[in-house]
Amino acid sequence: MTPEEELHPDDVQHHLREVQELLARQKLVEDLVHRQDMPRHELVESLVHKQHVAELRSKLDSLHPADIAYILEALPLEERLFVWDLVKAERDGEILLEVSDAVRESLIETMAPEELKAAAETLDADELADLAPDLPPEVIQDVFQSLDHEGREQLRAAMSYPEDSVGALMDFDLMTVREDVTLEVVLRYLRRFDELPDHTDKLFVVDREDRLKGILSLESLLLNDPESLVADVMRKEVMISFEPADDADDAAQAFERYDLVSAPVIGPDKRLIGRLTVADVVDYIREESEAEILSHAGLREEEDIFASVWDSVKNRWSWLAVNLVTAFVASRVIGAFEGSIEKLVALAALMPIVAGIGGNSGNQTVTMIVRAIAIGQVEQSAMQRLLKKEISVALINGLVWGGLLGILSWWLYHSAALGVVMTAAMTLNLLLAATAGVAIPMLRQRLGADPAIGGSVMITALTDSGGFFIFLGLATLFLL
Amino acid sequence: MTPEEELHPDDVQHHLREVQELLARQKLVEDLVHRQDMPRHELVESLVHKQHVAELRSKLDSLHPADIAYILEALPLEERLFVWDLVKAERDGEILLEVSDAVRESLIETMAPEELKAAAETLDADELADLAPDLPPEVIQDVFQSLDHEGREQLRAAMSYPEDSVGALMDFDLMTVREDVTLEVVLRYLRRFDELPDHTDKLFVVDREDRLKGILSLESLLLNDPESLVADVMRKEVMISFEPADDADDAAQAFERYDLVSAPVIGPDKRLIGRLTVADVVDYIREESEAEILSHAGLREEEDIFASVWDSVKNRWSWLAVNLVTAFVASRVIGAFEGSIEKLVALAALMPIVAGIGGNSGNQTVTMIVRAIAIGQVEQSAMQRLLKKEISVALINGLVWGGLLGILSWWLYHSAALGVVMTAAMTLNLLLAATAGVAIPMLRQRLGADPAIGGSVMITALTDSGGFFIFLGLATLFLL
């Protein structure tokens, strides 16, 4: 890189385009060679080819691992693997950490066990733990053997915590100092290192048993008189610390609320065992919100956009299957009223409106309640109050929009009675949607399930079947 | 606070419960007094009341502003305002910054202009800019007058950038040094301060014209020999910097990719004008993902869960109105085939399945494409490839699930022809959903609109009307 070069936020796009261009030029040569029936090995030997490859390799060497990961994700499989082969082996580990799960799988599949082992050995214990689920068991076994005692303990610890816990996010890059030394001693101690762990904004003050006694921020280290004792300038009170079993969501909210950069993770006896950094938290927040958005559409995981058709079908089929069942149930509800529809075919045209608006309104309620539960603002005791409010909103919407549709139906089918049934059905279905929209997430929470999952499918199933039943039922009672 | 007290991630829940308890006790006394017909002013004078209020006040004084904000959001309006009155006036500003928009409005409504002005004057220019849209114009005018020249310039700058730009997120807490001094001089300079700005992980090296020459991380300041010159240890190359007009999304991705804590914002001539910190980025990421999740359900903004029924109706009505229109259109499509339904009433029961599954499948495609566009991985040129893949997925799903439903229909209605029509309609509607699911977000992007917005409504509208039309049309052609 030239000195003074600057990175701008959208530079990764330029990098991607450059790599794509190099690949395209490479492909052009290959096509040409192909048309001339030159054997493959001659191509690989050819000067032009070598030049392109060298150019590409040096481009890749100059890039940040996260940028290489980005480029790999944006390339179709064949080109992705071509580029992956050109990446220096010692960078494989850090890049594998950065790519999405789907792309990671596609890369690991092509690597020999020795390559994987070499890549894994460049990583810290906490990073290894993240990668481990995707590695073949024999590779993990080998890597585990190659670790020292402390590394093995750390890897075992990191792998033992559930996915959404602080323990799974923490790292072990701890800078610790004793409380009975002066800041000058700490400063001299630090100068012995070539670098500090990423996101070091504070040092942890521990005693001989590694128990956390306080926190020495770099700020107080820099601003105080070097002659001061660590014990006198460290922070002993209101230390924010986590335990490995703490919920990652709560930790993320604490980072957000208190604007933290790093925080200690302590075990039994206040023993310092790890550290949580804002980088881990940012990744976690992003992944969680991606997962939530994907789950709304019934996608189980982020799809590699160049995934095979078959992988995509697998990622999506379970949701479609569930919806098929609920749609089939709704269809049978209609089936039960076929006699009524035969007599008054207008019902067939009007019934999807009742069901559809109910589903939309119910989804609004569910989304609201789920978010309020997620940020911890809804106690079960507030359920009644929320229910009352949602029912009032539904009543207003039902009378306004249902009334409007009633008038439209009256005008279309010249039947005032049909209009009244339409309005009544809309209102009742919106009330059903409001009640279920509050009750479903609240009940799921009380039962210990994640209130965010499945609420949308359940409410839509209920308002579809319920809407058809209410509308066709009322019509059968009052119109026929 | 007692020394050695620690904050745990879910402490804010305990705080909330404590405050609620104090409020409940307070209410008990009030009720008692009320039943004895004691006049209100005597209550306020009463010892018990004073004691409760003092307890609550001291509890609030001990809390972090973000925690007070959290508690205010979790309390119903009356209790919220009671608590708000007890908060020390000089903390009003920072708390107003922390609460959600809806709650901020409810608090500002009750404050006198002088109170608002006093609160605003405790804030920095970038914080003021965040609050300004919610303040009455005369308050902003007054605050603006009270600022010094630099403050006015900063406020003007911060307010001039669009909401989703780096300029709107940056702050002005810059620590700058010159390149021709030694680290020892920098260290002595820093010791003159009582504190560093939050999230200071680096100092900015500038020349006399405030042009950014390099970056001196606290790490290199600490690890290098104090006799070294700043110019020799500062980082000159691969500095990541932003411009105020840069897209906040790109900046957030850069922070995530390169694990940044802070980064300089530079104007024309590389002049340093501000700073972006990971705290701002985390808040931005959270807000964006909230907005995306809310918009899926057609909620315009986060609703204060204790908002009035009327506010909720306003927040939700526009989405229901749009859906009403699309549902009405779909209903008219059915209306056009009333003759066919009258002859074969089974069509009425089966048609919602075709429409519903199409909508679900289309939403999966839209979600996938929108996410791929958001992370910048889809060039317009990839459209054809993606389309091909989505169509293949749709074809498989259509034949499998459509086939299954065809068999079910055949079995239910003893008509093989009906089963074939069902399968064909499902497949065609899924193909329509796949095509539109790729095309809608891509076209919106090409037209410069946000591909994430409205895709779900459009696809559902299309697959509903389209599904009814295809199924009833095929049935009319081949069955009647």
UniProtKB/TrEMBL annotation, chains A, B:
Pfam families reported for this sequence: CBS, MgtE, MgtE_N
What's the chief localization of this chain?
membrane
Parts of the chain that traverse the membrane: 391-413, 419-440, 452-479
Kindly state which keywords UniProt assigns to this record, in alphabetical order.
CBS domain, Cell membrane, Magnesium, Membrane, Metal-binding, Transmembrane, Transmembrane helix, Transport
Quick one: which gene encodes this? mgtE
User: What is the name of the protein in this document?
Assistant: Magnesium transporter MgtE
Which GO cellular component term is one of those annotated? plasma membrane
This protein's assembly is summarised as: Homodimer.
Question: What is known about what this protein does?
Answer: Acts as a magnesium transporter.
Question: What does the sequence similarity comment in the record state about its family?
Answer: Belongs to the SLC41A transporter family.
Gene3D superfamilies to which the protein is assigned, alphabetical: CBS-domain, MgtE N-terminal domain-like, SLC41 divalent cation transporters, integral membrane domain
Q: Which residue numbers delimit the CBS domain? A: 170-233, 234-292
Concerning InterPro entries, the annotation shows: CBS_dom (IPR000644), CBS_dom_sf (IPR046342), Mg_transptr_MgtE_intracell_dom (IPR006668), MgtE_N_sf (IPR038076), MgtE_transporter (IPR006669), SLC41_membr_dom (IPR006667), SLC41_membr_dom_sf (IPR036739)
Q: How does it sit in the membrane?
A: Multi-pass membrane protein
Q: Which NCBIfam families match?
A: mgtE
For this protein, what is any one GO molecular function term? magnesium ion transmembrane transporter activity
Q: Where in the cell is it found?
A: Cell membrane; Membrane
Q: Where does the source fall among the domains of life? A: Bacteria
Species name: Azoarcus sp. (strain BH72)
